[in-house]
Amino acid sequence: MIQITDLQIEQKMWPLLRQAFRPMFLLGASFSALAITLWLLVLAQVIELPVYGQTLFWHSHEMIFGFVAAIIVGFLLTAVQNWTGLRATHGRALGILTAVWVLGRLGLLVGAWLPWWLVAAVDLLFLPLAAILLAVPLIAVKQQRNLFFVPVLFLLTLCNALMHFGLQTGQYEIQQLGSQNAVWLVTLLMAIVGGRVLPMFTANGTMTPKAEPIVWLDRIGLGSLWLIFVLNITNFSAMVPALVMALLFATSALALAIRCARWRIWITWKVPLLWSLHVAYWFIPIGLALYALRYAGFPITNSLALHALTAGAMGNMILAMIARVSLGHSGRALQPKPIISAAFMLVIVAAVVRVFVQGLWPELSVYWYALSAFAWVLAYGIYVLVYFPILTTPRPDGRPG
């Protein structure tokens, strides 16, 4: 029970620092729109950026360890309050964490003017600090179920460190090892969290029976994703025959597709906060299927398959989740403004153009990149404009958070 004195302190606190989702979602979404805009301007040779490393490194690094990492941390450090019943990170601690994230983004953006070790050190601090803040309440209540998120954050830190190490030693394969495995880890997180919340959200939002999990199917789908990560992070995947890797990816894609189909996307079309999540989840088996075809010898580039998971699954899942979580945890009804449906459609367009249209007509890639980037920036720009007053003002019910 929150005491009166606690409520008085809460009311004096800057609303943006009352829960982690507030600064992390707002700044993360804003940064993604800015980063994609800058990336497009660099590709068009309109501007040059004094970034850390070079622009391709900056783009691949910042979309994962800048944008996606901010949203993951915001989600976890908000959800832990529901999981444990303890007050989650807020106030000064949240302000410090946010400042570390901001300094990391600034460091990467102007890294050509700074010592590389300083840029790397600040950037690498964010995820471990978030992991500690997440671990404290989980350990305090001895909650084992969600404790695995803590080592996942440290594994993401390892991937980040590999990117920095690969860049500074001139070993591109190590740099790729870090970025690629970060994608596998985030994909695994989406598969796990999506499997927990989508059946429940769908049942509650459509007033229909919940699709109960099939244990063996979940184990195959998630277990194969874990195996993909382990094989890649240890570089054993290079020693496994291509057809075996193709079979592994195909197995994971099929299991996760069956899992998703059981959640019945067709009953969600009238609820934007639901169909957007379903569409996002479907990009996971699509991306895995593209990797299966790539290993099987089809002319599919790693970039194309990768962007099915990043622009497709991550881009759509993040927008759908932050639109929902921002309402629920700010004490508002789960009824987004109609324009948010347009944002959901735009980020789908961004992914489809970047993956499928660009793949079919690669000779026009520059135009597809521009269209995809424009749709992405518009989608996340809409979120920022609509949700800014929600994320920066107190809950209407007066409760903490």
UniProtKB/TrEMBL annotation:
Annotated InterPro entries: NnrS (IPR010266)
Regions crossing the membrane: 21-43, 63-80, 92-110, 116-140, 147-167, 182-202, 214-233, 239-261, 273-293, 305-327, 339-361, 367-390
Presence of the UniProt keyword Transmembrane in the record: yes
Keywords, alphabetical: Membrane, Transmembrane, Transmembrane helix
Signal peptide range in chain numbering: none
Database matches in Pfam families: NnrS
UniProt keyword annotation of Signal present: no
Protein name according to UniProt: NnrS family protein
Source species of the chain: Pseudidiomarina fusca
